[in-house]
Structure formats: structure tokens, C-alpha cells
UniProtKB/TrEMBL annotation:
Transmembrane segment boundaries: 260-281, 575-594, 606-630, 636-659, 680-702
Membrane topology value: Multi-pass membrane protein
Protein keywords: Disulfide bond, Glycoprotein, Lipid transport, Membrane, Signal, Transmembrane, Transmembrane helix, Transport
This protein's name: Sterol-sensing domain of SREBP cleavage-activation family protein
Protein localization: Membrane
GO cellular component: membrane
Domain SSD per the UniProt entry, residue ranges: 570-715
PANTHER family associated with the record: NPC INTRACELLULAR CHOLESTEROL TRANSPORTER 1 (PTHR45727)
Segment forming the signal sequence: 1-16
SUPFAM superfamilies: Multidrug efflux transporter AcrB transmembrane domain (SSF82866)
Entry-linked PROSITE patterns: SSD
Lineage of the organism: Eukaryota, Fungi, Dikarya, Ascomycota, Saccharomycotina
Alphabetized GO MF terms: sterol binding
Organism whose genome encodes this protein: Candida albicans (Yeast)
Pfam families, sorted: NPC1_MLD, NPC1_N, Sterol-sensing
Length: 722
């Protein structure tokens, strides 16, 4: 027993003597001595040896990798090959920023091959390799100057990676926020995930004992370095300074008021003062005039110059001009009324012919149901950017989404819900009998669908989770998504899955399915819509299965179907409104209910009410048909808005005309019918005409808006009023 203890003590002293050796020109590790497990990677040998003079081949290879000459090195040719392989793997992530790439290469080149490696590397733990029986390093401390580490982190922290629409730091540093988190992620032992094959602890302070250790402090490059300058998008310091640019944070104010509000107050105050002063001036003139009339004689009064005379002169001329225009409009309407009543067949026939011809354009009616084209202006910058993107890179995804949240303030996830959701999510592939999700989904690697869900941290397999470990494993994946890659191999950001990075406090989680879009392929689009309908039914059934949760869902087709459903539902309301208005107009115009004979329908003006509704409907169809002929697309919302507008205005005009005709008939019953109708239109026509002109101008003004929906709603009532 004592012999065994002495042997162990000797081994410990030997290891301690090796780990305490820190001299310039020496290596603490050199070459690879084996693996500590069957699936592990080769680990370095724990050997305190002088730095080896590099061969010509090794020197040239290191120069091609690291960019500088190494005379003596602490790495074998095999380790140089591994170094090159590992650096090439990270190259696509950081190559867009030369400074970050340069620092990354220099940092690991010096760590792997520096001839003074023993001065900043301290071996903490060794083991015996399973395949060779040699001593291998399994844990070290690497001493780094904090300023150097921070410079390394700063050069890479803002580098963008377009494939994930995020930052390269999310992949190479696990989303690190500072240099210590960055180097810890790089040093954590993760051999099976492409990380470090052994544990590297980065230390930023030397031990108190003088052991010969020093902090690494090689010169690194800033991201705005002249030679290795990164783009503005990857390095804020590289962005050009604009001294002439205005500081948008500073706003113009006068006291506590913004300058715009202050200017509006000043303008309105001036207008009020001017108008008030003008009225005071007029009142003063009137008062002086009365005083002059009271004091002066009649002869004086006849020669007095009234100041208001000049002011009223312009008004008199304007009134005379207005009277002339009004008289011409009255005569025009009187002629129209007389002609239509004198030749009813020609009037009605011609009107019907024009209306029918225009209404034939309904056969060319094109309905626009795309919400983007309805509500977004073609000149909107966001719309133009989308069009440019889709023309160069293809159409954007169709997004199917489910949001699951708790009904109370408690966390949404527990073990039962986790098991339930794993089971439900596995059904997405086969929701539709004819269309499988894998046939239409977006596949980044052309193998598996891009499904953004917390289940994909475990590649959709719950077998590795238990009631005791699910929370810790899920939290670990949320903290470091790179360690829990889904089947499509793109890290899942926790902010698109949960409302909180703390799983125990998350009140909701989101599941998003990305589906390819190809609107040019009608068969593919119909299959996609068919799957989306199945998705909607599946999501709706989730609520009945788990009533304690709030289940919200949407698909790409949802918005369009909701708009169409709303329009179709409102058609019943429109029909009922027309029927009620018809009954009301028929009864109100006649004053009593009609009897069974045909003369009673005329006497009670029941047919007049019916004809009025028909005229209004025909005006709508003629307007829609006309714009269909000229190629202007229509919307279903037109069927809701325009009939109500035209019906309300048209019925009012009919009541006014009928009432005026009734008054004239009672006052002059001996006049011919044509004359009475002519006189009625002469009195009522101008007001209806002016009202119509104002309404047309109002609607035409609204057509200046670029949005298709506003333009379509505005231009058709304008045409109808004309």
C-alpha cells in the first residue's frame, strides 16, 4: 500500500514539474499522442521540450496559413494540418471582415505554433490515451492580456453573416457580449460539435507566485485598420464621418413647444387678430355712417361718399355673375326635363343602351385580392425593395405560424406541454393527404425543412429529454444555440422562439414554418394553399385539446381569405339595405300601400321607388364596367362601399325631385305634365348638380393616393356621380 502511495506521489510530482516549466523557447505540448475516447479527436502530448526548428515544408505551409515566417515552432506537421482545417471552417463566417479574419488566424496560429508556448500555456490536467497509452493534455490554462482579448472581440463582434441574417458572433462566439464570453465559448470542450478537443481556460491575470508565466499580448488589428479595414456594415468605426450631417436627436423648440407647433399658433393668432380687426373696422364704419345720416341734411346725405360702397361693388358684381350662371344652369335643367318628359322612349332607350354597353365591361372585370397590392403604394420604398429582392433572389417565403401562450401570468412550458407539443409538431409533415410538408417547405440544405421551433434544438426527438432534465437542456440550448443545431443546421435564435430568454419565465412560444412561394406555378400554389387549409384546421383543433392555453395561428392565405369572407358576408347586408330602402322609398313617395291593380302601383308611386333603385344599381354597374374596360382592377371592398354611397345620395335626390314636382302640381294643376317636370328640374337640378360636382371633385382628389384600394374606391363613385 505504501509503495502505491509513493508511486502516485512520484507521478504527481512529475506532472507538477512539467506544468511548472515556463521558459522562452520551450513548448509544454508538442505533437498528438492519441485520443481519450473512441469518438474523440487527437489530443496534444504533454511534453516539455525545446521549440523545434521548422522544416522548409512546415515553414511554407505556416506562412500560407498565418502570413508570417516561423523559424522555431511548437507544432508538428500533423497539428499544422489540423490548424489549417479548423481555420478554413470558420473562414466563410468572418471573411467579409479582413481585420477579424486576420486576428482570428493570428490568435490561433500563435497559440498552436508559437516557440514560446510554455510561457502562456499551463497544463492543468492530463490523461492516458485509450488508443496509444501515452499521456495527453485534457485541460490547460492559457494566459491572455485583457486588452488583447478585448481587441480581438471588438474586431469581430459586429461582423454580419448573411446566411442567418444575423451576426457571425452568434456562430463563432455563441452570441457573446464581451471578450470573456467569446473566449470561453472558443475554449469550452466540444469535440463532437466541432469545438475545442480539450478544455482551454482563458485566464486574464497571472498567479501571485513567480512561475515564469506571462500574459499573451501580440499586436492585433482594429476593424478600421488601414491595411485590413472592414466594411461599414461590419465595423462602425469604418463608417465615414459626415461633419455636415445634422444631429437628428436635437429638435427645434421654442420653450417647451416644438417649432412647428409654435409657428402654427403664431399663424392662427395673426389670422384671428386680422379678422377681428377687420370686423371692428367694419363696425366702426357702420357706426360713423349712422352718425352722419343723423346729423346731415337730406341734401348732404345724397352727396355723401359711403366707404362701404366700394367694398360692396365687388360683391355686387360677383353676385350678378353667380346669378347669371345659376340662371343658365336652371334653363339647362328645364330643357332636359322637358325633353325627357316629351320623349320618354328616346330618353329611357338611349340611357339604357349606354348603361348596357358600359355594363358589358363587367365581363372583363378583374378582382385584386392580394393584400399587398391593395394596401401598399407601388411607389413605397419597402414595396420597391421587396420587388427588387424577389426579382433577383426569388419570391419571399410563405409563412405559417402558431403562437402558444399561457392564459395566466405563469410560464407556458411544463413537462406535459413539452411532450404534447413534440407529438403535435410531428404531425406537420402529414397534415394533408395529397401534399406533404417536405414537398413545399424551404430546405436550406436541400434535405430537411426549416422549422423554427424549440423542438428543433433536439432535432424534433424527445427521447433525450426527461421530466428532470428537459428544462436545463432547453435553457442550455437557448443560451448557446450553436451547440443545439437543428436538422437544417442553422442556429435558432431564442428571441424568435420565446418572449424571454429565461425558459422558466417564458409566457409564450412561437413555431414558424417556412414554405417556398412560386406564384407563377398555379399547380404548386394550389397545393400550397391546400396544405395551408389543413394547417389552419390542425391549429384550430389545438385549442380544444388544451383549453388552458391560448392558441393563435396564421397562414399566408389567412389575410386574403379574411378580407374575402368579410366582403362576401357584407353582400347580404347590402342586399337587405337595398330592399329596405326600396320599400321605404316606395311607401314614402306614395304615402300609402298599393292595392292589387296596376293603376294603384302608379298612383302610389310604388313603381317610381322601384325604378329609382334600378337606376342606382345600373349607375353602379355602368361605372364598374367602364373602368373594367379601360383595365383598372377592382376590389371586393367596392361592393361594400360604393352601393351605400350611391344609394344614400340617389334616394335623397329622388325625394327632392318628387317633392318639388308635387308642390308645382298642387300650385298649378292645369299646367302640362312636361312643363311641370321641366319646372321641377329647373328648381332642384342646380342644387343637385352643384352637389354632384363637389362630390366628384372630392372623390377625384382622393385618387391622387397611390394605393390601389383608395384609388378604386374613389374613382368609381366619382364616375357614378357624373
Amino acid at each position: 500500500m505504501r509503495a502505491i502511495c509513493l508511486l502516485l506521489l512520484t507521478i504527481n510530482l512529475a506532472i507538477a514539474s512539467v506544468s511548472s516549466s515556463h521558459k522562452p523557447g520551450y513548448c509544454n505540448t508538442y505533437g498528438n499522442c492519441g485520443k481519450k475516447s473512441v469518438f474523440g479527436k487527437p489530443l496534444p502530448c504533454a511534453e516539455f521540450v525545446p521549440a523545434v526548428k521548422a522544416s522548409q515544408e512546415s515553414r511554407e505551409k505556416l506562412k500560407s496559413i498565418c502570413g508570417k515566417d516561423f523559424d522555431y515552432i511548437c507544432c508538428s506537421p500533423e497539428q499544422i494540418d489540423i490548424l489549417e482545417s479548423n481555420l478554413k471552417r470558420v473562414d466563410p463566417l468572418i471573411s467579409s471582415c479582413p481585420a477579424c479574419r486576420k486576428n482570428f488566424y493570428d490568435f490561433f496560429c500563435q497559440f498552436s505554433c508559437s516557440p514560446n508556448e510554455s510561457q502562456f500555456v499551463e497544463i492543468i490536467k492530463t490523461e492516458t490515451a485509450r488508443d496509444t497509452g501515452k499521456e495527453v493534455v485534457t485541460e490547460i490554462n492559457q494566459y491572455v492580456e485583457p486588452e488583447m482579448a478585448n481587441q480581438f472581440f471588438d474586431s469581430c463582434k459586429n461582423v454580419k453573416f448573411s446566411a442567418t441574417n444575423g451576426y457571425a458572433m452568434d456562430l463563432i462566439g455563441g452570441g457573446a457580449k464581451n471578450y470573456s464570453q467569446f473566449l470561453k465559448f472558443l475554449g469550452d470542450e466540444k469535440p463532437l460539435l466541432g469545438g475545442s478537443p480539450y478544455q482551454i481556460n482563458f485566464v486574464y491575470k497571472l498567479p501571485e507566485t513567480d512561475s515564469g508565466l506571462v500574459l499573451r499580448n501580440e499586436p492585433l488589428r482594429d476593424c478600421n485598420d488601414k491595411e485590413y479595414k472592414c466594411a461599414c456594415t461590419d465595423c462602425e468605426e469604418s463608417c465615414p464621418k459626415l461633419p455636415h450631417a445634422k444631429d437628428l436627436t436635437k429638435k427645434c423648440t421654442v420653450g417647451v413647444l416644438p417649432c412647428f407647433s409654435f409657428s402654427i399658433i403664431i399663424i392662427w393668432s395673426c389670422m384671428i387678430v386680422l379678422l377681428g380687426g377687420y370686423h371692428v373696422y367694419l363696425a366702426k364704419l357702420k357706426k360713423e355712417r349712422r352718425r352722419s345720416i343723423a346729423e346731415d341734411s337730406e341734401d348732404d346725405e345724397s352727396t355723401m361718399i359711403n366707404p362701404l360702397f366700394y367694398a360692396g361693388l365687388g360683391k355686387k358684381r360677383a353676385k350678378q355673375f353667380s346669378s347669371e350662371i345659376g340662371s343658365k344652369i336652371q334653363d339647362w335643367f328645364a330643357n332636359i326635363g322637358y325633353f325627357c318628359s316629351k320623349f320618354p322612349g328616346i330618353s329611357i332607350g338611349t340611357s339604357l343602351a349606354v348603361v348596357v354597353l358600359l355594363s358589358l365591361g363587367l365581363f372583363k372585370l378583374q378582382l385584386e385580392t392580394d393584400p399587398v397590392k391593395l394596401w401598399v403604394s407601388p411607389n413605397d420604398p419597402a414595396y420597391k425593395n421587396q420587388q427588387y429582392f424577389e426579382s433577383n433572389f426569388g419570391e419571399w417565403f410563405r409563412i405559417e405560424q402558431v403562437i402558444v401562450s399561457s392564459k395566466d401570468d405563469g410560464p407556458v412550458l411544463n413537462w406535459d406541454i413539452v411532450k404534447w407539443w413534440f407529438d403535435k409538431e410531428s404531425q406537420l409533415e402529414t397534415l394533408n393527404e395529397n401534399v406533404r410538408l417536405s414537398d413545399i417547405c424551404f430546405k436550406p440544405l436541400d434535405e430537411t425543412c426549416a422549422l423554427q421551433s424549440f423542438t428543433q434544438y433536439f432535432q424534433g426527438d424527445i427521447s433525450g429529454l426527461t421530466e428532470t432534465n428537459w428544462k436545463s437542456k432547453l435553457q442550455s440550448c437557448v443560451d448557446s444555440p450553436v451547440n443545439c443545431l437543428p436538422t437544417f443546421q442553422q442556429p435558432l435564435k431564442p428571441n424568435i422562439l420565446f418572449d424571454s430568454n429565461d425558459i422558466s419565465q417564458a409566457k409564450a412560444f412561437t413555431v414558424t414554418v417556412l414554405v417556398n412561394s412560386d406564384t407563377q406555378n398555379e399547380n404548386y400554389t394550389s397545393n400550397t394553399i391546400s396544405y395551408e387549409h389543413s394547417f389552419q384546421k390542425w391549429a384550430a383543433d389545438l385549442q380544444t385539446e388544451y383549453p388552458n392555453l391560448n392558441i393563435a395561428y396564421s397562414t399566408e392565405i389567412s389575410l386574403k381569405e379574411e378580407l374575402n369572407q368579410s366582403s362576401n358576408t357584407d353582400i347580404k347586408t347590402i342586399a337587405i339595405s337595398y330592399l329596405v330602402m326600396f320599400i321605404y322609398a316606395s311607401l314614402a313617395l306614395g304615402g300609402k300601400l298599393p292595392s292589387a291593380n296596376l293603376y294603384s302601383l302608379v298612383k302610389t308611386r310604388f313603381t317610381l321607388g322601384f325604378s329609382s333603385i334600378i337606376i342606382i344599381l345600373l349607375s353602379v354597374t355602368a361605372s364598374v364596367g367602364f373602368f373594367s374596360i379601360i383595365g383598372l382592377r377592382s376590389t371586393l371592398i367596392i361592393a361594400e362601399v360604393i352601393p351605400f354611397l350611391v344609394l344614400a345620395i340617389g334616394i335623397d335626390n329622388i325625394f327632392l325631385i318628387v317633392h318639388e314636382l308635387h308642390v308645382i302640381s298642387e300650385g298649378n294643376p292645369n299646367l302640362a305634365l312636361e312643363v311641370r317636370i321641366s319646372q321641377a328640374l329647373k328648381h332642384i337640378g342646380p342644387s343637385c348638380f352643384i352637389s354632384a360636382v363637389l362630390q366628384v371633385c372630392m372623390f377625384l382628389l382622393a385618387t391622387s393616393v397611390d394605393d390601389l384600394l383608395y384609388r378604386a374606391i374613389s374613382i368609381r363613385p366619382a364616375q357614378t356621380r357624373r
